[in-house]
Amino acid sequence: MDIQYIRKLIKLVTDSDIEELEIEESGARVRVTRGRAADETPVSFMPYPQMPMPQHAPPAAPAAQAAPAPAAAPAPAKDDASLYTVVSPIVGTFYRAPAPDADPYVQVGQSIASGAVVGIIEAMKIMNEIESERGGKVVKILVENGQAVEYNQPLVVLDLSA
């Protein structure tokens, strides 16, 4: 839509008794309203994406990741009281290493101290180091490098008795 067309729509609304006019054309929507407060914009323009995002791909990925988790969960034969899970304090993308070519912060079987960095979560282009509040032996790493994580999602399981 060009600006001249939008101006004609505005004039049409202002010169008539129409309160609101909304037109969708070529993947773009224009809404012209009148009688609004001065701080509201009378014209809004929202382009639509030309190609809809596939809705089937995202649900398939979590289902594939969820299937191995129950099979792997019984692997630690330790008492649950001796296990500690480091969880994500924020939503973002989890990285196991400080750089793509660097070694991961922790490996399965490694003993770490309290306050040790177990990974980084990128949120809004800010890298946040995730530290363990407890020390112990790394039993399992529950997320892959580059995986999106949710708030309070388990990241790493530690054996506190080791």
Task: Please describe what this structure looks like.
The protein is of the alpha+beta class. Helix content is 17%, strand content 34%. The chain contains 3 helices and 11 strands. The protein has helices at residues 3-14, 57-66, 68-72; strands at residues 20-25, 28-33, 43-47, 83-87, 92-95, 111-112, 117-123, 126-131, 136-141, 148-149, 154-159. The strands form 3 sheets. A 4-stranded antiparallel beta sheet has the order 4-11-9-6, with no helix packed on it. A 4-stranded antiparallel beta sheet has the order 8-7-5-10, with no helix packed on it. The protein has a 3-stranded antiparallel beta sheet with strand order 1-2-3, with helices on one face. A hairpin with a 2-residue loop joins β1 and β2.
Radius of gyration: 26 Å
Q: What is the ordering of alpha helices and beta strands?
A: HEEEHHEEEEEEEE
Please state the structural category: alpha+beta
* Count of separate DSSP helical elements: 3
Main sheet characteristics: 4 strands, antiparallel
- Uncertain stretches: 57-78
Straight-line distance between termini: 67 Å
Mean pLDDT: 76
- How much strand? 25-35%
Q: How would you write the strand order of the largest sheet?
A: 4-11-9-6
Helix-residue proportion: 10-25%
Per the principal axes of the C-alpha atoms, what is the gross shape? rod-shaped
Strand count? 11
Write the layout of secondary structure elements.
Blueprint: H1 3-14, E1 20-25, E2 28-33, E3 43-47, H2 57-66, H3 68-72, E4 83-87, E5 92-95, E6 111-112, E7 117-123, E8 126-131, E9 136-141, E10 148-149, E11 154-159
Antiparallel strand pairs: 1-2, 2-3, 4-11, 5-7, 5-10, 6-9, 7-8, 9-11
